[in-house]
């Protein structure tokens, strides 16, 4: 399993960060420009990654003010889990960690690990910008 992680400090309390992430409609704001055909509900999102694949994700687990896990709701090119964890920093700020776990063979890892890391980093930095 390939695990890609990105961390950001968000200048908002943990409950506000969690509330934003708990609604899949908000995740469109975190996506890079190569994502299009976005449709979403509170629990699911469908979109296309330019020159790659269509993805359909659904939230499979929620632990209020701690963790959200999204998994593919339709067949994906590889097994995938997107997890957000949030924790109180003790000073009114929140540590948000985005973890992408993907079951990639060696060839796929060479092709996808870089773009997945870029995606995770982009999403955490956008979260920090939006909730600034």
From TrEMBL:
It comes from the Bacteria. SUPFAM superfamilies: Bet v1-like. Keywords: Glycosyltransferase, Transferase. The lineage of its organism: Bacteria, Pseudomonadati, Bacteroidota, Sphingobacteriia, Sphingobacteriales. It comes from Pedobacter antarcticus 4BY. GO terms for molecular function: glycosyltransferase activity. The keyword Glycosyltransferase applies. This is Orotate phosphoribosyltransferase.
């Amino acid at each position: 399993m390939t695990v890609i992680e990105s961390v950001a400090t968000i200048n908002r309390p943990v409950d506000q960060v969690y509330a934003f992430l708990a609604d899949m409609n908000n995740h469109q704001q975190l996506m890079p420009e190569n994502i299009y055909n976005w449709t979403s509900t509170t629990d699911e999102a469908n979109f296309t990654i330019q020159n790659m694949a269509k993805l359909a994700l659904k939230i499979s687990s929620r632990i209020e003010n701690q963790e959200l896990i999204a998994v593919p709701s339709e067949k994906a090119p590889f097994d995938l889990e997107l997890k957000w964890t949030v924790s109180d920093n003790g000073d009114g700020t929140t540590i948000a960690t985005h973890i992408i776990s993907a079951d990639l063979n060696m060839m796929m890892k060479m092709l996808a690990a870089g773009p997945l890391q870029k995606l995770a980093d982009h999403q955490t930095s956008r979260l920090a910008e939006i909730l600034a």
